[in-house]
Amino acid sequence: MQVPVGFLSKLWSLVSFLPFFILLLLLGSVKAVLIGPVAAAIVFFGNSAVIIGLWPAHFIWTYYCVLKTERIGLVLKILIGILLPLPLLLLPVLAIVGSLLGGIGYGVFVPLMATFEAVGEGVTDKLAHCFLDGTAGTIAGACTVVRDVTDFCFHSYFSFMDDLIEKMGDDETPLDIKLSYLPRSVLIVCIAVPVDVLMISAVALWKSPCMLLKGWQRLCEDLVGREGPFLETVCVPFAGLAIILWPLAVIGGVIASFFSSFLFGFHAGLIAYQEASFQMGLAYMISAVAIFDEYTNDLLYLREGSCLPRPKYRKADIQKGETGQNKVRYSATTEPAEKQHGHNKHRRVVLHRSKTFMQTIQRLRPIQIWDWLFRSCELNGRILLSEGLITSEDMEEYITKGRGKKLSIKLPAWCILQCLIRSAKSDSHGLLISDDVEVTNFNWPKEKVFDWMLGPLLVIKEQMKQLDINEDEEMCLRKLIMTNKNEKPSDWDDSGFPSDDNIKRGQLQAIIRRLQGIVANMSRVPSFRRRFINLVRALYLEAIEAGAIDGSRDVKRRVKADVASENIGEEGTAAYVEGSSNDTLGNIDMV
């Protein structure tokens, strides 16, 4: 969409868009009234039934794992045992309230957003989509929400608990607290909480008028010029509502600042415990106000930094500062003045490239990363199936029991390792996930889950670059990942791996184990499990139809019934999902 230039053009764009916007808003509201209660009821009753039904098992198993684990020390176990009943008893209440609010929000906003998305760019037959989008797809999406919550309660929770009760390694130490540090921390909390609450609330109140006026100014400018949140049609109703309700947003910001100030005070006690210093806790209490002030300045585009004092509250930072001062003092006394002048003469200030608005738009979305991973698993799954590294028994076990390390852990780990090898050979700065798409820090999704993935993967890619894997070793790695334990270099003695270097073998095995750990954490995301089961079902039916395997008749009948039920309601959202995932990734058939 082209942004109009000039006052008259902007004014005409605003006036001509208002009737169109009102009609879409009315249509979306009608669909929300008709479809919303059904979707809200599905989410509310489904999630509440699952969480409350599993609550006794979660209560007992959580206590059992906390008492059995070796990763928590005795003092911390006693403290957790005393405090744990409160959140566990509140869980059913929070589940009911959260399911009710989440169901209402989902049932109202999804049909409304789907109505505006139907008139977006790249949508054919917009009139039909305006009436149909957000109806059956909303109900199917509500069922998907219940299924994801069920997967989390049944599988992800128990997977976390299994990791908790695993035996520790020889180099690991249990997590515990020192009783001698607690009085100091409690005293700091008693001092820091009232001070931080008072000071941070005062800063928030002082800057609230500026937030109100600047917010109104920016939103009104975007409304007239059809820029910012008003550029995309789907965002218009929410952006227009933001103008009306902006004072409430400012009040909410002040209230949120008030409650967050308690966290700053409690964190001061944690700093005092970690640094074993009363002074460091007081230093953080003072720095917290400056940190909050600097954050609000950045948020409101005010001056950089803060005029409030910000003392260092980490002993390591203080030592680094003293070391740096000593180095500067030493160089100043030993180097001649002419040499220092020469250094200053050739010194240049390096400016870091700032992120532009277009770079923000081109940032990959999480669904596109998922699409690449599952597409890669699909293509590699066919190859491994043809080579006999994946059997019908493996797929039937995963379909019937819902678990199987070879498929859910080893197959995605091999896909990621293959991407890392390809990126290392091409000397890419990031991860090369297709012929024309390179994932870097600039376009990587900023969700926390993906942030935790990118850093380790980039480090592993640099390690792969140093190992210099050739084609024969790469072909052998595929078999080793899928069939071997990969715990020690001797496990590869009879595997036919081309290299006899035990150091290289040990490094590759460590990389494989780390990738499998990353995939294990990814598999706990409910959407991962749902999509991976659908992938295995599709591969299973495809292999049977091609005659590659002889599947069980009962499993085949069950898979066909599940696939048929999965297809209900998918037509309403398939076109949008396909378009959103393929626009940026392009060709993801590269494996």
UniProtKB/TrEMBL annotation:
Keywords attached to this entry: Membrane, Transmembrane, Transmembrane helix
Highest taxon of the lineage: Eukaryota
Segments of this protein annotated with the region Disordered: 325-345
InterPro entries in the cross-refs: At3g27390-like
Membrane-spanning intervals of the chain: 42-66, 78-109, 186-208, 229-248
Keyword Nucleotide-binding listed: no
UniProt biased composition (Polar residues): 325-334
Record-given protein name: Steroid nuclear receptor ligand-binding
Protein's UniProt keywords contain Transmembrane helix: yes
Species: Urochloa decumbens
Organism lineage: Eukaryota, Viridiplantae, Streptophyta, Embryophyta, Tracheophyta
Family matches, as PANTHER family: EXPRESSED PROTEIN (PTHR31133:SF2), MEMBRANE PROTEIN (PTHR31133)
